[in-house]
Amino acid sequence: MELTAEDQALLDGAKGPAAARAMADLVRLGEAYDAPDMVDIGYAHIHSGMALYQGDVELMTDLADAGAKVIVPSSANIANADLVNWQATGAPEALFRLQSRAADAHRAMGSASAFTCTPYWAGHWPTWNTHMVSIESTVTIFCNSVLGARSNRDGFFATYAALTGRYPRFGYHLEANRRGTHLVRIEAPLETISDWSCLGFHVGAEVGGGVPVFEPPPRRPSLDELDALGAALATSGGVSMFILPGLTPPFADVAAAFDGPPPPALSVGASDVAEVYARFTTGPGDAVDLVHVGCPHASMEEMRLYAGLLDGKRVHSDIELWVTTSRTVRRMAEEAGLVQSMERAGARVISDTCPMSCHFARTVSPDPALGVVPPPMRAIVLDSAKQAKYVRDMIRCDTLLTSAEGAIASAVAGRFVPREAGP
């Protein structure tokens, strides 16, 4: 792989041991993927240092102690505790304090402590053709697809790229890989954000690591619907980019999105979307412990939606309702009076984490000294196919998948309300 003089200087330690270590690992990554050279990156969404994984916080604190500094705008991914109000989730204090050490490391390195899986709603909005890096699959697919930036699914290498401003040129940083592989015809009526989530989950399982091109739907989807679509595509498959010609950059029509004639279309009907709802709807509807909305972390418009659905209502005494969002959006929602309105109705507005990323998770390896004991969970009502998949995998309880309207209605009624029965 060809290195510039500046790359070689970093590798030789000109900017300190942390940058040298980062560049060395990036060189190894590039050589593994036969990258010809490196690109300059303009943004990085990096590892938070997750307190529920033994030794994980030390990955960030060791870098900070070695004098590491990010040299491009950088945001941190979701954490294992709400660092603004950890008591609201019932998190052990020891978990909060360990997660706070990672937050201190981020501040020392100069990264924004966003702690969210949707940093774009918090103002991190990389523009078309910006090379970037991301540890979070939802960020990768949204930025590749909706914004036209260029990113792979990077893991911890995203942190190293933030420290060097460089990344090997391979994957979705190459123009040749940013073309469609599958054509998808939407024949299902998509009325809610959750419907788009289920569409994405179905298609992701069909196309694997491909790039689906969707024939333009009857109406223009909202940014929240595109977000839900991408998050689910990246969950059931290895999808890092999708194309909606005329809606996402840069292709104006279906033909332009392919390198050659388009393949036969994969049709997705109402029964395919309904099957995803059914797959993640198990267990009795009257044994619900938690209702969760806000996966991926809610936008300001979704916060308006949830507050409107709760207006004049009260969360059932046997149910916890969690609304998860970034601390930035939470602050905007506070300014608009939305948080106060939801909390008066009995909801808990949570930042920095979510159910499958907090102390509820069972498939983690925390330090025994933390004393983390996941609480028993019978079933969780959700409005996101992505979260339903991860709740099944990590919390290992039943899920009940519905729309946002059905989820809020479930929280009020104290029992599961399917999407067809929502208000």
Strand order of the largest sheet: 11-10-9-12-13
Q: Tally of extended strands?
A: 13
- Which H/E pattern describes the elements? HHEEHEHEHHEEHEHEHEHEHHEEHEH
Low-confidence stretches: none
CATH class of the largest domain: Alpha Beta
Quick one: overall form? globular
Name of the CATH architecture of the largest domain: 2-Layer Sandwich
Helix content: 25-40%
Topology:
Elements: H1 5-11, H2 17-32, E1 38-40, E2 43-46, H3 56-65, E3 74-76, H4 93-109, E4 132-134, H5 137-147, H6 157-164, E5 166-168, E6 182-186, H7 193-207, E7 212-214, H8 223-236, E8 265-268, H9 270-279, E9 290-298, H10 300-310, E10 320-325, H11 327-335, H12 338-344, E11 348-351, E12 379-382, H13 385-395, E13 398-401, H14 404-413
Parallel strand pairs: 2-3, 2-4, 6-7, 6-8, 9-10, 9-12, 10-11, 12-13
Antiparallel strand pairs: 1-5
Helix pairs in contact: 2-6, 3-4, 5-8, 7-8, 7-9, 10-12, 10-14
Can you walk through the features of this model?
The chain has three domains: 5-175, Aconitase, domain 3; 179-278, no CATH class; 280-421, Aconitase, domain 3, CATH 3.30.499. Helices cover 37% and strands 13% of the residues. It contains 14 helices and 13 strands. It has helices at residues 5-11, 17-32, 56-65, 93-109, 137-147, 157-164, 193-207, 223-236, 270-279, 300-310, 327-335, 338-344, 385-395, 404-413; strands spanning 38-40, 43-46, 74-76, 132-134, 166-168, 182-186, 212-214, 265-268, 290-298, 320-325, 348-351, 379-382, 398-401. A five-stranded parallel beta sheet has the order 11-10-9-12-13, sandwiched between helices. A three-stranded parallel beta sheet has the order 3-2-4. Strand 9, helix 10 and strand 10 form a beta-alpha-beta unit. The mean pLDDT is 96.
